[in-house]
Structures are given as C-alpha cells and as structure tokens.
Amino acid sequence: MRRRFETLVDRHGGRLLQLARMMLPSVHEAEDVVQDTLIKLWDELPRLKKDAELGWLLTCTRNACLDRIRRDQRQAGLRRQVQAVDRELERHVDHGDPDTLSQQGERARELHRAIASLPEPGRSLIVLRDIQDVDVSTVATTLDLTENQVKVYTFRARRALRRQLEETCHEQVA
C-alpha cells in the first residue's frame, strides 16, 4: 500500500498542486489542500480502484478547494456584515442630548447583540436584506439558496429577531 501511495504522489502530486494553485489565492493554501487530499488518499487507498485513482484525486482536490473558497467567502462576509451593522448603527445615532445618546447606544448594542446571536443563515439574511438592502436574487446566489428559501428564511429570521428584542425590552421594563 505504501508503494502504491508513493507512486500516486510522485505521479500526480504536481498536477494536484497545479489545480489547487489555479483555484486558490495563495500557494500556502494550495499546499494545505493537496496535503489534506493526500491524507484522504491514504485513508481511502485500500478501497480505491486503480482505474479511478486520478479522477478521485482531482475531484477530491477540486472539492477541497471549493470548500476552502466557500469558507473564506463566509468569513469575509461575516466581517463585512459586522462592519455594515456598525456603520448602520452609527448612521442612526443622534449626536445631541447625552441621555438620548445613551439610550440610542444601548438600543444599538441590543440590536447588534440580537443580530449576532441569530443562527445562520438568518444572521446573514438580516444583514444582507434589511441592513444592506441587497436584492433577493443576489442574496440567493451569495448564500447558495433559492430565492424562495431567501424569502422564507428572512421571514423566520425577522420573526426571531423581533421576539428576541421584545424579550429584551420586557426584561428592562420589569
């Protein structure tokens, strides 16, 4: 098994790295993906048919690259969402009376906490649809959902956010 593994790495390792480098922004990420693929190969090798080796390696590498790209996009999207919420909250702050400022600041923090506590994809949908005013079609593409899912999940996220904010308001009054 070890000899077969080494032969496959020698024969196809460069091709896998080339594929990963074409798909990913950095050499380091490409090398990580290929290394992960080779670890999977080692585990899968006893069950892998000889005539399917190259196809399996290329598919595994491609899928790992796509997973990495999606993960990076989600992380970048979350950073943008937090920044957008901060900008939106700042926009609504009245720079006047200190008591009013304090109340507005507290409400903004409550809203920020409530949005941040929503599970995905609800959090992303609230930010994209309600704060950034992104159209349904673009949101669907961005989050890999259907347009109908975007509408339904947005409705549910708004309802959850409303309930959470109502609970917070009732706790403060009581």
Automatic annotation (TrEMBL):
<dbReference type="InterPro" id="IPR036388">
    <property type="entry name" value="WH-like_DNA-bd_sf"/>
</dbReference>
<dbReference type="Pfam" id="PF08281">
    <property type="entry name" value="Sigma70_r4_2"/>
</dbReference>
<comment type="similarity">
    <text>Belongs to the sigma-70 factor family. ECF subfamily.</text>
</comment>
<protein>
    <submittedName>
        <fullName>Uncharacterized protein</fullName>
    </submittedName>
</protein>
<keyword id="KW-0731">Sigma factor</keyword>
<dbReference type="InterPro" id="IPR039425">
    <property type="entry name" value="RNA_pol_sigma-70-like"/>
</dbReference>
<dbReference type="InterPro" id="IPR014284">
    <property type="entry name" value="RNA_pol_sigma-70_dom"/>
</dbReference>
<dbReference type="GO" id="GO:0006352">
    <property type="term" value="P:DNA-templated transcription initiation"/>
</dbReference>
<keyword id="KW-0805">Transcription regulation</keyword>
<dbReference type="InterPro" id="IPR007627">
    <property type="entry name" value="RNA_pol_sigma70_r2"/>
</dbReference>
<dbReference type="InterPro" id="IPR013324">
    <property type="entry name" value="RNA_pol_sigma_r3/r4-like"/>
</dbReference>
<keyword id="KW-0238">DNA-binding</keyword>
<dbReference type="InterPro" id="IPR013325">
    <property type="entry name" value="RNA_pol_sigma_r2"/>
</dbReference>
<dbReference type="GO" id="GO:0003677">
    <property type="term" value="F:DNA binding"/>
</dbReference>
<dbReference type="GO" id="GO:0016987">
    <property type="term" value="F:sigma factor activity"/>
</dbReference>
<keyword id="KW-0804">Transcription</keyword>
<dbReference type="Pfam" id="PF04542">
    <property type="entry name" value="Sigma70_r2"/>
</dbReference>
<dbReference type="InterPro" id="IPR013249">
    <property type="entry name" value="RNA_pol_sigma70_r4_t2"/>
</dbReference>
